[in-house]
User: Fold this.
Amino acid sequence: MSIDRIELRLVKMPLVAPFETSFGVEVVEEHIIVRADGDGITGWGECVASEGPWYSYETNRTAWHILRDFLIPLTFENEIHSAPEFSQLTARVRGHNMAKAGLESALWDWFAKAQNKSLAQMFNAQQTAQPDFILPERIAVGVSIGLQATPRALVEQVRGYLAEGYTRIKIKIKPGHDVALVRAVRAEFPNIRLQVDANSAYRLSDADIFRAMDDANLLLIEQPLSNDDIFQHSKLQRELKTALCLDESIHSADDAEAALELGACRIINIKPGRVSGYAESIKLHDVAARRGAAVWCGGMLESGIGRAANVAVATLPNFKLPGDLSASRRYYKQDIVEPEFTVDAEGMMRVPTGPGIGVAVVRENLDAVTASLQVFRRN
Ligand code: OSB
Ligand code: MG
Assistant:
């Protein structure tokens, strides 16, 4: 059993609407789709790096370089028997977590298909938090709303997503666009599950801004301070009743352990791409469960390929809060998988039950968004 062909595709997918955060605006989402073939089985994965180094230092070009020159050769030179083994093998490559996760996710799909198991089954078999956990058929999901031109426009966006069924709303904030947005949404919707995400836009000296939203009954405040910081977050968390949640600062299960031990947050956003993949995500999940801290699944505006794996990991028992896992059509006019991901009237998303990612890649749709392609073979 082995993989003898790997294909990388740079894809450019136009978003249905620009997505604005404190670090910039995304109009066309660029990701790398990874295809792994061997023994008649095809595995699909997605690398969630972006065009520019704004959310993290990785870009699609750095990821392509690390995949082509290091991760793909390592995969061909070694006999790999499972996706967690790939994760161990590539630990000697420092950083470049999104590049690693892109290939690792294709391997998870490949091994799951080889064993005729769904990714949700594969991931749950690895977690040790609750050994007898029974897989849910559906999971509660939320939506992340980018910065809007006016508070009114934001309130109308929230209204629209609530009408579609979403039961948890996340809004982006940045300096000058924060407390007033929270107040505007809360005035209109006093009881919804609401959280904010600053994407590292503030300093500890801005603590008053967070104190001003401390009575807004937010589920959490996501990544208020700098992108690699744990220490300053621990100081801010001591000043607030509202739970802090770290995103950008957490690159591994060890980081999560340090952040929780130091009181830098009470909740962690798990993005598989940010932590090098699903094996590490499961470790992080278990560390947080042991410490009684909830986790939830973040998103990077994935296509259906990355979304499928994220939905599967979000079935693990300690994913206690709805994730940034929205319907395909919230992001793209046309997804590259079938069936597309949808959200029902109760704000729930179905977990695919077929082998691997459990959705089919639509070749015409994938070809239509492919900007470049390179094939690598085991020799
Ligand atoms: O910080 O969670 C974030 C998108 C791109 C980069 C960073 C973030 C996000 C989101 C969108 O909030 C989540 C999603 O719906 O995929
Ligand atoms: Mg975030």
Remarks:
- The first helix runs from residue 60 to 77.
- The first strand starts at residue 5 and ends at 21.
- Residues 122-350 form a domain with the TIM Barrel fold (CATH 3.20.20.120).
- The chain is about 35% helix and 20% strand.
